[in-house]
From TrEMBL:
GO molecular function: 4-hydroxyphenylpyruvate dioxygenase activity
Stated name of the protein: VOC domain-containing protein
One of the protein's GO biological processes: aromatic amino acid metabolic process
Coiled coil: none
Gene3D superfamilies listed in its UniProt record: 2,3-Dihydroxybiphenyl 1,2-Dioxygenase, domain 1
Species of provenance: Octopus bimaculoides (California two-spotted octopus)
Superkingdom assignment: Eukaryota
Length: 297
């Protein structure tokens, strides 16, 4: 059973999800561990181990309207089916004609929780928007309960997973990739894939880049919603300004918070979330699409 609080981190890709997954595996030493496919989506699980899990999601494009009859009704049906899928969240408000998000984004930090119903009640008391209600999912390995809450921060969401009664490799509905077909002179044989080169052991922290003077409100939201607490990353850190880093071409103000182990509700263990506020030095990178940044120290 997973004992750490980050269950997985989800990356939404506009297109070419298979190629993106292969690139992740090649550059980070990960391996494909599972997949899920629906009429409207493809999802790939890549991992280094059960503590470093990335879920890559691609939303399928709907057929061009000129190729559809009653396309308005079909579009509505598609939207309803995506909304009712407990694993699918559109990570970008802007979509193309095919209904796909127009940008790639790291958008979902999935948290393992002890008591999902109690956590959801706490979130609702805080006024948080529940993107997906609590849903029970099961297969031969047991059952899990999942829900999705929208954070106060941009397009960030948090899937909540309660899986004390589940012994499967990931989540119900996902197929484990245990073997692969390899062509031989005699035909195709099933053999185990080669052991991956694990270069990562843990996700140490998640970093959000936020606008100046907004981090205190964000920290307050996470304190109220999840019982997380501020902690200081450096002895020179100022309570209001955070830990300030000044470099010739840029500046950062760092503030961090983690799950408080004594909280009665919340995630399963202590995990650090860092907020970076842009400093007064330097300009914006024109290539920045406003998506959240994930660090693997």
């Amino acid at each position: 059973m997973l004992q750490h609080s980050i269950h997985h981190i989800e990356i939404g890709v506009r297109e070419n999800g298979e190629e993106f997954v292969l690139e992740l595996c090649k550059k980070l030493g990960l391996y494909r561990a599972g997949y899920r496919e629906t009429v409207h989506s493809q999802q790939w699980l890549v991992r280094a181990n059960d503590r470093v899990q990335l879920l890559v999601t691609e939303i399928r494009s709907s057929p061009p309207k000129q190729e559809q009859q009653n396309y308005a009704r079909l579009d509505q049906q598609r939207d309803e089916e995506i909304a009712n899928d407990p694993y699918l969240v559109l990570w970008d408000r802007d979509v193309d004609e095919g209904g796909r998000p127009v940008r790639n984004s790291v958008f979902n930090v999935c948290l393992a929780v002890k008591d999902i119903q109690r956590q959801v009640e706490r979130l609702e008391r805080c006024g948080a928007k529940m993107e997906k209600p609590v849903t029970v999912l099961s297969d031969a390995d047991g059952e899990v309960k999942v829900a999705v809450v929208r954070s106060c921060l941009g397009n960030v969401v948090h899937t909540l997973v309660e899986r004390q009664h589940y012994s499967g490799f990931f989540l119900p509905g996902f197929t484990s990739i245990r073997r692969q077909d390899v062509k031989t002179d005699e035909g195709y044989d099933e053999i185990r894939p080669p052991a991956p080169r694990n270069r990562m052991t843990h996700v140490d922290h998640v970093t959000f880049a936020v606008e100046v003077d907004t981090s205190q409100n964000i920290i307050g939201w996470y304190e109220n919603a999840f019982g997380m607490k501020r902690f200081y990353v450096n002895s020179a850190e100022d309570d209001g300004e955070g830990f300030v880093i000044n470099l010739p071409n840029m500046a950062l103000r760092l503030k961090a918070f983690e799950y408080w182990k004594c909280a009665e509700t919340g995630v399963s263990s202590n995990t650090t979330l860092h907020h970076h506020s842009n400093g007064d030095v330097g300009g914006n990178d024109d290539s920045d699409d406003g998506c959240n940044k994930l660090l693997f120290p």
